[in-house]
Amino acid sequence: MARHSAHGKATSSKPSDHVVARAIDLTKIYGDADNQVIALNHVNVEFERGQMTAIMGPSGSGKSTLMHCMAGLDQPTSGKVIVEGLEVSAMNQRQLTKLRREQIGFIFQSFNLVPTLSAEENILLPLQIAKKPIDRAWFDQVVHVVGLEQRLKHRPSQLSGGQQQRVACARAMMARPSVIFADEPTGNLDSHSSREVLGFLKQSVKDYGQSIVMVTHDPRAASYADRVLVLADGNITQDLRHPSYDQILEVFADEGEETHA
Amino acid sequence: MIRIGLRDARAHFGRFVMSIIAIALGVSFVVGSFCFREMMNNQVDQMMASNSDADVYVRGNKEQKENSAASFGGASDSGSGSASSSSDSTSTESKQYNRIDVSLVDTLNGIAGVDTAEAVYEVNGLVLVGKDDNAVSTMGGVTVGMGLAKGTWRSAKLTHGRWAQSKDEIALHTFAAESAGLKVGDTTKIVYPDGPHDVRVVGIFSTASSQAGAIIIGLNADTAKKYFEQQTGQVGTARYLTVYGSAAGGQPLTVEQQQTLADRINHALPSDAHAVAITGQSVRDDNAASTKKALGFIQPLILIFAIIALFVGSFIITNTFSMIVRESMRGYALLRSIGASPIQVFVTVAVQAILLGLVGSGIGIGLGWIMVKGIVALMANMGTPMTSAVDPSVSDMLIGLLVGVLVTFIGASLPARRAATAPPIQAMNETVNPEKPVWPRGIIGTLMVVLGAAAWLLCWRIAWANDAGVAVSPWTGFNDWIKTLGTGWPLGIGAGLVVIGVIVLAPALVTPTSAVLGWIPAHVFTVTGRLATRNLSRSKRRTANTAAALFVGVAIVSCLGVVAASAKASVAGIVDSGLKSDFSAMSVSSGQIPDEAITAIKKTAGVGTVSRSRMLMGVTYGSGDDATAAMTFAEQPSLFTKVFAPVTNSGDANKALRNGELVVGLQVAKDNGWKVGDTVKVNGRQVVIDKAATAKAQEDYQAQVKAKIDGLTSEAQRLLASGDVSGAQAKSAEAQQAAEDAKNVDPATLVKTKTEVTHVSMKVGAIIENSIYRSMVLMNDDAAGKIANQYTMFTIMLFINAKQGTDVAALKTRLIKAVKPYYVVNVQDRDEFKSTMSSMVDQILLVLYALLALSIVIAIFGIVNTLALSVSERTKEIGLLRAIGTSRAQVRGMLGIEAAIIAVFGTILGMVVGVAAGVVIRAVYQANGLSALSIPWNQLGVFLVLAILVGLVASVSPASRALKQPVLDAVASE
């Protein structure tokens, strides 16, 4: 495994236009002095524009922590997070809000939608919160792609889990953020719905050049990504470009041994 | 399991603070109200025991229906609108009996076992001038003069000096002496009904019970009798004679002894005396019961707020425990999965609730006690000292404790049940079960409101029918039943139904109302406004319950607000539309204006005309048993042109008054069925000097003095003979003194008077409906002179017009100076005349605002708590909103709008119901002086703004709690 980890550390130098977000020497330690848990251990990574990057790893590997730090949801203990040239790790609440409004989209595993709002209202919510003008043509296009034309007036409780996640995808797309962070977007879905959602995410990368960072432990989901990062014990252990499903499974088989050891 | 519960309780203590406060408040009101009632009852009993302390009372044996307003004190001016409407109902509670002849005293004194029998005369409306040369007045009430001598009032104990022996002397009750700053030997003034008089304080007496702020003056018995006769027009008769028995050697008799004595007296009373003896105990019991009944409204009033507080309290507790249970669901699931039974889980939650209830009620009992202490201190401070104990009894405390624990337990039982019955798997599940539909509540609530409104309509109809003198409905059986019902019952039942109906209905109103109320915020703050509005409809019951606290409070306050404003407007209306004079003058003691004061006013430079309203005592209309009493006034013929513009119902009021015909108020005309042109028999009273009796009294007195001097002289001679020179000198000096005293005695005290009844037939010339004249009969001075004389007519009010071109402000200063020596005369200009009523109303409003403040505090608790719960339920949602770019300010704004809408929702419901109730009450009591309807829109507007502020304030802490939660914790899935 050691030979794969070298790649992750190598790409830490100067910023360039094809990088949408990067972590520099990112460290996150939970707990107090007696009971330290190192979630991220000096991680350096760049996420490229117009790509779907999957972050994989077993429970406790730090994959979610990495994503949360990248998205400004969590404060790193040390190191820097930079999104579109802005230093996220040094931002205050007001700047973070601005960042979320302009640069970042989110898709969560569950509870993605505001239950009191209809599908359409949920999709438009980020724009309205930010008081941005609504691009109707773009809205129609997004809705068409996710296939929700007939369900726009429905409340989340009237939608299936897959439909809900597609609404969440559409919402994340709507503001055309620099990068969408998706946290186990298919975690609660059956395989059919998962395929639909992943297909839509893939399409948005291909057709509209959307950058997506997705945390998942589902190898099938990861296989949709352009690049797969594998974390273990707070370090990036593998960085696979366009891996096949079998390659990913192989990695997991190894990890299984590692974590159980 | 109990141990786990106790440990949890400690861990959640911070959460419980609000619940404890709510429970404590509720319990304190419950305990306080019981405590207060007991204290008042005690006080009443104490006062009865010392003030009506005779062993036997002799009174008339025939019950009489007599218009209480016809007796003295009916000098009600225009201002008695709402005040009298409430007191009317209570004053009719005590039964009236025929008057009996005072000469029975002699018969009574001759009966074995009677120590003293006496008629005690009370004189109302006196004014005592204190050491600082100002009239002594207290919040507590009246100044009463009583004819007191040794033995007339057993409970009154002389502590210094002696009883008054002439008009120039007074004895003072300790409280009166204290309030006036006077002591034995001081000279001061007392304003008798006919003017101020210099008097010397010759004695101080005390009573076992405090007199609730009354200023009691012991007058010379004859003086008291004279003024009593003047005031009431009743000469030689009394309602009661008091009898003290001798069986217990000067101590109060036991109930059996009282009964024996009463039986003996009844046996001895001549049958033509129409009198009966009853035991003192039964009189005290009756009086105490009716007084307690009159005071009985206070406790329910306090209890209403106790119920609001407890309702909100139980509701806060439900919310708090819902939060705790939701957060501890995993723990309960764990307990269940390792084998704990649902009951055991229930117990862990219930233990916390009971602990909370105990702490809350404990604090509440203390608070209640402090509250009553505070009220008593406040009353003492305002001049109404209470001597009864204020400590809560054990039963009060138990009731408080029980109520507190029960309410807490009920509040917590639903969440506890949820904790106990939820399957372990569901513990992870965040899904909120959809609410049960609210339409059944909508239907039931609407039904209740409709029924309540129907009761109000009925009430209105009854009042209107009474007023117009027509039947309530075409069905006679129904009419009879309605008659026994009166207006109070339908009004109260209607109010109850409407209030409860609205509370039941409220959840069904949440969605439509928040859509309407949310319209503005939804358009001003597009996203947050819309989110807030929708959030309210998520748990409609909770939203409605939260609003209910404010609803009830605001309903009460706005109802009374409408009544108060209408009362003000009615008076202002009278003044604006009717009163033509520049000034009015009346006596602050509600008594007569002394003739000297009238002369002084007339002599004041710049005064044009002075019209006086004189009340005729004891005038009745009709003959025999059908005679009815009515307040009758003698006026100048120019009354309707110079002082008050008449609102004529029929006839020509101005012409009638000038022609010496009767001008009858609408109410009186209706009661008696009079029409213009009818001829009515008017029975008046004139007090004239009984020459024969006077001569006899003077003779008797001379004889008495002579006998005394003779006795002393012979005693002196006897002492001289036995060689005691100094003793003899003292005795002869005493004899000389007695002769001197006899010379100085006021011959007026020896003048005996008698009442002659006069009968005159007069024509009803006009019927008028000015609200101040509704229950009066007016005639001109000449006509009045035929049925009454100066002893039975008293000037109650003066209306003063300035001379043309006089500076009215300067004239006012001069007038006030002119009447200063008479202490009791109060000169008011038009605005002040209006504002006497207004300031009284404003004082009532002040109390209302205190109540409102209280319900606002409770409501804030409720809103804070509801928001806290809904924030805790929506942690994920708020996290999501934050994650997709909602700023902190927007989250605060959203919660602020939610809270404000809840508050406004409750306030508007309260206002609608309260104003409706106020309008109904106003209409029902229209005849009692509430002639104008006025809705205090400004006030209501202030309430509304206040409601918005309350909501915003209430949202601050839950919003902070919501924002303290890191976005990550809220959205992280696990």
CATH superfamily of chain A: P-loop containing nucleotide triphosphate hydrolases
The biggest sheet of chain A, with number of strands, parallel, antiparallel or mixed sense and barrel status, is: 6 strands, mixed
Mean pLDDT of chain B: 78
Q: What separation lies between the terminal Cα atoms of chain B?
A: 28 Å
Largest interface: A-B, 35 and 28 residues
Radius of gyration of chain A (CA) equals 18 Å
Helix content of chain A: 25-40%
Approximately what portion of the residues of chain A adopt beta-strand conformation? 15-25%
Mind telling me the CATH class of chain A? Alpha Beta
Spatial sequence of strands, sheet with the most strands of chain A? 6-7-8-3-9-10
Major beta sheet summary of chain B: 12 strands, mixed
Transmembrane segments (chain B): 16-36, 301-325, 345-372, 393-414, 438-459, 489-510, 516-533, 545-567, 844-872, 893-925, 937-956
Region (Disordered) (chain B): 66-94
Biased composition (Low complexity) (chain B): 68-94
Pfam family, one (chain B): FtsX
